[in-house]
Specification:
The chain is of the alpha+beta class and about 375 residues long. About 30% of the residues lie in helices and about 25% in strands. The chain is built from 9 helices and 18 strands.
Amino acid sequence: MKVDELKTIVAEVIGEKIAELKQPAARKAFIDEAGGPEPAEAYLKQAQFYCKVLGVKALDGQEIKAITDDIVYTGATGQGGYINAPAETMAEIARIAKQASAVQRLARKFSQNVDTMYVPTDTSDLTFTLTGESVAKTTTKPTFTRSTLTLVKPAALVVITDEMISGSVVNIVDYLNTRLGEDYGEYLDTKVLGVSATSPFDNIAHITGVNEVTLPAGGVDFDSAIDVTSAIKSKAMQRARWFMSRTVLAEFRKVKGTDGQPIFQPPMGQAPGTILGYPVEIIDVMPTYAAATTGLMCALFGDLSYWYMGEGKAFNIGVSRDAAVTLDSTLTSLWENNMIGIRAEARVSGALVLPSAFVRVLQA
């Protein structure tokens, strides 16, 4: 079968699906199948967006054309173009990333419209004095420093087959939103909470100013856990959390307090599990306990709201049928294998504005 013939078949399938979804009676069934909370119109817009990204356009029975008829190339000819994702798609990707990423969920986020901006940080406390009619006020001279937020461009690459497109449009929307959201969330956790020294952001495993507590030679015990919770700035205590991998959590779960009760309490309902009363975030990209060596960070404790994250414009979505990508360590031609590559790029920055809001837990 020729590529044009395959594209015509795919276009007909998606075109029929879109036409059906435009009927009012089909909207409720569509959103029920999707299982999403948003209105059917919003989900339909996402489906139409991905239809365009995947290389076809279907609108009210009009002629279906390749996406290259509609989008101006920004790169080499034949390598695909860029298209901005609609607000509904961005919101869904962000929702999934928030579920998958502690950084996306807990960091302080704001819009950033320039490549580089500076955030003032105050390393001193203000002084308050008891005043009266003739009592002089004590002057406070804050010690200000600044953190630099520089936008970088993380990208996720998703490869799907033409056969996937010929199935339900709902499945394609859910699959792509989920992959993009989860990959983006994992990227943020890896670069902020993992041990990578090449992070473009302030990586908490390496940044100076973060306190450290070294576990005893025998591993985690009650006294060292208490020392960790006492090693951060007092104003960070209210929203502080533990961050660790599952294997490190397993070591903490073995520890009991002076009352003989475990210091870890399992989740109850919507509430997360806790250690000494502080919530625990399971971060799969953080070191495992078995792999941790002397002096290596195995856990973090602190308040991620002091990690500032600037967010640039919405995702850019790029698509190509002709490029070669690496799959399972092998350079693979998309065209030869009837596949489509979808690249999503975001613009994000990040910095830890109060290093003393965190403590690193090091293995002895």
